[in-house]
UniProtKB/TrEMBL annotation:
Keyword terms, alphabetized: Hydrolase, Lyase
Domain of life: Archaea
Organism: Natronoglomus mannanivorans
Protein name: UxaA family hydrolase
UniProt region (Disordered), positions on chain: 1-36
Length: 117
């Protein structure tokens, strides 16, 4: 319901918690982290630098498309990348927390032809 004079949503005007902005950062974005050993989370909406993901109040440092991964921890080249409690790849270059994790910095451990690395 909208207040016809002000154009303000009635729920917001009544003090309902409809704001998705955090105090210190950008918009809160939902993500999936299923296992405490995960080193990445999957964002469930497009995220921009400064947006916050996970219950850890974690800031994204660059744009990350829907369905892609964000690093929770630092990774050195050769470090395992873990998602859903499983190793899904290996870092090919340094990855810092909040960075997008994809083919430009992670070699997939899944779907590889035998002998291909």
């Amino acid at each position: 319901m909208t207040d016809s004079e002000t154009g303000v949503e009635a729920d917001a005007a009544a003090g309902a918690d409809t704001d998705t902005e955090t105090e210190a950062t950008g918009t809160r974005r939902p993500s999936v982290e299923l296992d405490e050993s995960d080193t990445v989370v999957t964002v469930l909406e497009d995220a921009e630098a400064g947006d916050v993901v996970t219950d850890r109040e974690f800031e994204v440092t660059e744009a990350v498309p829907f369905g892609h991964k964000v690093a929770l921890t630092s990774h050195d080249p050769g470090d395992e990348v873990r998602k859903y409690g499983e190793v899904i790849g290996v870092a090919t270059e340094p990855i810092e927390p909040g960075e997008w994790v994809h083919t430009h910095n992670c070699d997939s451990a899944r779907g590889k032809a035998e002998g291909r690395r």
